[in-house]
Specification:
Length: 509
């Protein structure tokens, strides 16, 4: 029997950076893949890499020239994985597959960075034509190739068919330590450990969880960048010196993928100038929208996630490069050398503790947002499992996530991560250095919007009486919006007739 006559296990549409690596990951685990992309050169690159990796073994990936051919090469019922840009391209692929003859019991899996509401819409829209399923993927191209974190959601029947595939290709962690079990060589897929793939829930919930993951990622990156700026501008440290500190921190409680790559970026020299690469990179940050989506969702749900929002704003502020350059010549700040009485060693320790405490608050905000969304949409999210699948494969992977897993295993109804005994103690022990770091940055005129917003979040959350009582008085004064009283039953509202001198109280039923 010829290779071309053997039916494939999986169809795959999209051979870009993520698609190519997912295809090869699937092939590593024994799945035969039929692939299609509108750009034939991308398919040729997949085939060439497959050939180089498999040697004399039979081809693991075959190239298709149309959607019709793709379906004809698959065993029934068909399973087609799609890796294309979010938005209209996803629907274009779905419509093309309908035209090609896809059936009601076939499954299409969207692995792109889709907005979760689009996923909900698609599941309903394509019902009866095929089963639309989604799986959010984190880990970048390396994760896709050697083990991503996978957040699937949708039809439970579809999950029973997809589960063994996702568990096979996902990143793995040591169940005893929670540490990643890394694989960096093709053709050697067998790693024993807990897979970073778990069923999240109904359609859209997986992409929502990934959206929050990305919001946390935005905030975590911004926190690291702010610490770097304080070391650079207040302490006069070189990029290499900051890298050395980050490498040291990465051996302890701040161990994470983002800390690791930050140290590597800072240590890299520019091949053209010989300068630290970071010093020749323009300080204008891009974004693809997932952090913005997280911030918008937090506002819509009334669930505070200020540090995630500040991270989005920081990227927006960075794009105002020309205005910032002008403002730097016109707007004054403090004389930095007169602002601090701390030694470099003291400030570095303060920044370490500030980063750790702020990181705890960022995750508290993210998990609280998921909890609020779950209540709003009727999802039963397992937060211990979500923390587990983020321990490896994804961009925010960190040793820290093992402690979050344990927190939700201790109490699966935990109201907020800050209320867990372990995390509340961590902040109690380290908070003074956090406060000193934020104060020193403010006195030195260095912006630390994420570090300071996380501190304000913590202080607001632990404050029994906030000034919202005055705010409610203001609202009642100009708009008769009413208020509740501390000495009356909950739910009863009152209004003052502010136009009269005696201002009699009127109860509003």
């Amino acid at each position: 029997m010829s290779e071309t006559s053997v039916l494939c296990d999986i169809g795959f549409v999209g051979a870009g950076v993520m698609g190519k690596n997912l295809i090869l990951n699937l092939a590593d685990h024994g799945y035969r893949v039929a692939a299609f992309d509108l750009d034939h050169k991308k398919l040729e690159a997949v085939i060439a890499q497959d050939k180089a990796e498999r040697g004399d073994k039979p081809a693991r990936v075959i190239c298709c020239s149309s959607y019709t051919e793709l379906l004809s090469r698959l065993s029934s019922p068909h399973l087609v994985i799609v890796s294309v840009p979010a938005g209209k391209p996803v629907d274009d692929v779905c419509l093309k597959l309908i035209d090609a003859g896809i059936q009601a019991d076939d499954i299409i899996v969207d692995t792109g960075n889709s907005l979760w509401t689009d996923t909900v819409r698609r599941e309903k829209h394509y019902e009866g034509k095929f089963i639309f399923f989604s799986t959010a993927v984190s880990g970048g191209e390396v994760g896709a190739r050697f083990g991503p974190s996978l957040m699937p959601s949708g039809d439970p029947y579809a999950w029973t068919r997809i589960e063994p595939i996702w568990r096979a290709i996902a990143a793995k962690v040591d169940p005893a330590t929670g540490r990643p079990l890394e694989r960096h060589e093709p053709g050697n897929p067998v790693i024993e450990g807990e897979p970073c793939a778990t069923y999240i829930g109904p359609g859209g919930s997986g992409h929502y969880v990934k959206m929050v993951h990305n919001g946390i990622e935005y905030a975590d990156m911004q926190l690291i960048c702010e610490v770097y700026q304080v070391m650079r501008d207040a302490l006069g440290m070189s990029a290499q010196q900051v890298s050395d500190v980050f490498k040291e921190w990465n051996q302890g409680i701040l161990n994470s993928y983002l800390m690791e790559i930050s140290a590597e970026v800072l240590a890299t020299k520019d091949s053209e100038t010989g300068l630290p690469l970071v010093d020749v990179i323009l300080d204008k940050a891009g974004q693809k929208g997932t952090g913005l989506w997280t911030a918008v969702s937090s506002l819509e749900l009334g669930c505070p996630a200020p540090t995630i929002s500040e991270a989005v704003f920081a990227r927006s502020m960075s794009t105002l490069k020309d205005q910032r350059v002008l403002a730097s010549t016109l707007l004054s700040g403090p004389v930095r050398e007169h602002c601090t009485n701390q030694t470099s060693e003291q400030m570095i320790k303060q920044l370490h503790d500030a980063l750790y405490c702020a990181k705890i608050c960022v995750y508290a905000q993210g998990f609280d947002l998921m909890k609020t969304a779950a209540a709003e949409h009727g999802w039963q999210l397992n937060f211990a499992e979500i923390a587990k699948i983020w321990r490896a494969g994804c961009i925010i992977r960190a040793v820290f996530l093992q402690s979050i897993t344990e927190a939700y295993e201790r109490n699966d109804d935990l109201q907020n991560l800050l209320l867990d005994p372990f995390f509340s103690k961590q902040i109690s022990v380290n908070q003074m250095n956090w406060r000193r770091a934020v104060a020193e940055a403010a006195m030195t005129g260095i912006p630390v919007s994420a570090l300071s917003s996380a501190l304000s979040y913590y202080d607001s959350y632990r404050t029994a009486v906030l000034p919202a009582n005055l705010l409610q008085g203001q609202r009642d004064y100009f708009g008769a919006h009413t208020f509740e009283r501390t000495d009356k039953a909950k739910g009863k509202t009152f209004h003052v007739d502010w136009s009269h001198n005696d201002r009699p109280m009127q109860k509003i039923k």
